[in-house]
Amino acid sequence: MPWYVELLRAVVGTIIIFSGVAIVAAMLGVLLERKISGWIQSRIGPTHVGPRGVLQTVADTIKLLQKEHIVPRNADAVIFASAVVLVPLAALLDYVVLPFGTTRWGPLIFRDLNIGVLYFAATSSLIVLGILMAGWGSNNKYALLGGLRSAAQMVSYEIPIGLVLITIALLAGSLSTVTIVTMQAHLWFIVTQPVAFLIFLAAATAEVNRAPFDLVEAESELVAGYFSEYTGMRFALFQLGEYAEMFAMAALAVTLFLGGWRGPVLPSVVWFLIKLYALVFVFMWVRWTFPRFRIDQLLNFSWKCLIPLALLNLVATAYVVMVVQR
Amino acid sequence: MTGEAIAFYVLAAITLSAGTVVATSPNLMHSAVALIPALLGITGLYVLLNAEFVAGIQVLIYAGGITVLILFVIMLTEGGTGLHIRQRNEQAAVAAAVAAATAAVLVAVASRTPWAHGAGTLPSYTPGAIGQSFLGPNLPLFEGTSVVLLVALVGALLIARKEIRE
Amino acid sequence: MLLDWGYVAIFVVVGAGMVSLPFAIIALLSPRGTSPHKRDTYESGMEPIGQAWSQFNVRYYLFSLIFVVFDVEIIYLYPWAVVARSLGASAFYSIAAFLAILVLGLAYAWRKGALEWS
Amino acid sequence: MITLGHYLVLSALVFGLGLYAALSRRNAVAMLMGIELMLNAANINLVAFNKYAAPGAMQGQIFALIVITLAACEAAVGLALILAAYRRFETTYVDDLHLMRW
Question: Do B157 and C62 touch (CB under 8 A)?
Fold first, then answer.
């Protein structure tokens, strides 16, 4: 193909992914979050804007667009401003390697990179930097403490996620996400790797700072955590980053364990979305089921429970793959 | 200009300008933050050099790990209070001369030497090739790194912990 | 392969543009307040005392230190994982030795209480 | 056409920046950042030589991985030392840390 066609494809693909994630993950995600929270707590949730309140997040976004954006006097303006671009961008970069479905011409993916899951791990590790920068740049005690807690938590849970990624790469013999889905044609990896699936879900919940691991933005202690000082659209961009990362983690879990886009009768993209939303529902369900961890419990849970378990699981898998099956 | 050349010059510009901020900024925190684009620029160069695996590792370890450590330590020590402290020592002029001279010699050597081009092609799948090599001829290296890491962990914990207990 | 990464590069550039797009909108739409307290640091309505940029618990550093070492160990497992299927039992034992040393590090940190928060 | 020379020149410049930072900075953490830049410059060389001078072998990339590993170890231990020194002497400025024993 000539270079300008490739360029056009890349630009259009990017715009589709960005607006898709902003609408499907962030706007719909916030709405779902509120509706499901309401349902679990026997409330109704938002009702006023649009039929049954479905346009609530649209209204919220428009409201946020009209808000003034304020840089605190004591803040470090450069770091304060760059953090807000880094966090959503790093979260959205994850979507490059996520296969959404399949068509006659091949899998529906932005780009099937050779180092697929490693790329995912690398880009999501950039979010930690954005959060630290936001916490520091605000020069606000709540924000700084929230940012630090968040960073300590996220780095602790990157290790179990990495170990799980390696376990799956070992089974599939590849780092490419498309190959991993293809290898699940007969058997989803959740069947052979239930422990890894549970570790991944727990670690992913913590990695995206969600309840019960949400002490980073424990409202009663730290206001809004590292983005306390951000107003208007900047606040919305952090929210976008958080929801995008949550959906990316759920989509990665679908890709690694639930056979990705595979499923009978319905089109592949629909299957992918069904599985994705099922996992997102689990995330939201968990939020209202477990009480919040303390920071020591949180770090202990990763280092003393998830990591040894993930290591054990990896060695057992390696033993089966490399010794028993040969 | 080809795409490769454009990419090279853009990445080189990012790396060098961010590197300049790292080396000269009077604000420590800005230096540390500027390290991120510098490292990411170098990551891009690895990609251009067909070393995607090294590129991934560069982001994961350098940007996601070492930079976080550096940011933590700056926050733990001087932090924002270090803003008004002189950051350059008395040898700054000498240091600049030495650094410029070293760079000049290296540039001269690099651009004058007729570098031989090796035969063969890069393996198309670098993680696989690296894995083969690590479990084949480079096995001692592979096991050795884990010992080095263990020693580093023990040493760093000893140093850091001792101070806490006192 | 370079083409793949060209796509990623476009993704980053266009993506950064799209993330910055709202700023153009708020520059047009947003109101401009003049209150002097607008730019105060938020501290639940109190006047902030001192700078936030002060020192905090060293534990955060300890955890990130252990994290970096483990992160580095883990990167060596990626290239191994993709070729493991084609290798036999001997490769399993060499990786088991590698992981054993890793576990030794974890056990040391655990034993020395570096994984305790208190 | 980008050749090996381009990468080597770039790496020499990055090395110069790192050297300048390591020599002229008073703050130990900033010196460490300079050292990281120098290590990265070396890594660019290794990977570039791997592609242009010995494409068949993976030694350059493997060595780059080892350098990254050692850089991580160096950062972990070095920063722990800086932190220990800070907790005792309340400074991270190396010209204030001139006593071998306390």
Answer: yes
Number of domains making up chain D: 1
List of chain B residues whose C-beta atoms are within 8 Å of the C-beta of residue A126: 59, 63-64
Instruction: Specify whether B7 is located in the same domain as B58.
Output: yes
Contact between chains at B88 and D25 (C-beta distance less than 8 A):
yes
What is the spatial distance between Cα D102 and Cα D100, in angstroms, rounded to a whole number?
7
The answer to whether residues D87 and B76 touch, using CB atoms and an 8 Å cutoff, is no
Query: Out of C69, C75, C76, whose CB is closest to D76?
Result: C69
B166 pLDDT band, cuts 50/70/90, is: very low
Q: How many domains does chain B have?
A: 2
ipTM of the complex model: 0.89
Dump pLDDT digits (tens) for D16-31.
999 998 888 888 888 8
A126 contacts B126? CB cut-off 8 A: no
Helix C2-29 and helix B28-48, axial crossing angle in degrees, nearest 10: 140
Query: Residue D102 falls within a domain, yes or no?
Result: no
- Do residue B108 and residue B132 come from a single domain? no
Average the pLDDT over each of A73-87, A94-108, A203-217, C92-106 and give the range with the smallest value: A203-217
Mutate: best of A129, A176, A311, partner B, most B CBs <10 A = A129
Number of structural domains found in chain A: 1
DSSP B13-51: HHHHHHHHHHHH-SSHHHHHHHHHHHHHHHHHHHHHTT-
CATH number at residue B97: 1.20.120.1200
Interface of B with D in 48-107 (CB under 8 A): 48-51, 53-54, 57-58, 61-62, 65-66, 69-70, 73-74, 76-78, 82, 85-89, 91-92, 94-96, 98-100, 102-103, 106-107
* Domain around B49: 1-112
Task: List Cα–Cα distances, D96 to B28, B164, D100, in angstroms.
Answer: 17, 22, 11
Check whether residue B94 and residue B131 sit in a common domain.
Answer: no
CATH top-level class of C56-118: mainly alpha
Residue C45 has pLDDT above 70, yes or no: no
**Shared-domain flag, residues B89 and B135:** no
Tens-place pLDDT, residues A278-305? 998 888 888 888 877 777 788 888 888 8
What is the rounded (10 degree) CA torsion for A211, A214, A218, A224?
-110
Chains that touch A (3 or more CB pairs under 8 A): B, C
The verdict on D75 touching C (C-beta cutoff 8 Å) is: yes
- In 3-state terms chain A splits into helix, strand, coil percentages (rounded to 5) of 75, 0, 25
Which residue type is seen at B97? A
Same domain for B106 and B130: no
**CA of residue C70 relative to chain centroid, distance:** 13
Residue D29 DSSP SS3? helix
Q: Give the range among B4-18, B33-47, C18-32, D52-66 with minimum mean pLDDT.
A: C18-32
**CB contact at 8 A, B137 and D74:** no
CB contact under 8 A, D73 and C61: no
B149 interaction partners in chain D (CB closer than 8 Å): 69, 73
The domain of D29 spans: 4-96
The CATH number of whichever domain residue D9 belongs to comes to 1.10.287.3510
pLDDT digits (tens, 9 = 90+) for B59-88: 999 988 899 988 888 887 766 555 666 777
Q: Does D37 reach chain B within 8 Å, measured CB to CB? A: yes
pTM of the complete model: 0.90
Per-chain mean pLDDT for chain C: 78
Same domain, residue pair B131 and B87? no
Asked if C43 is an interface residue toward chain D (Cβ–Cβ < 8 A), one would say no
- Cβ pair B63:A125 closer than 8 A: yes
pLDDT value at residue B15:
93
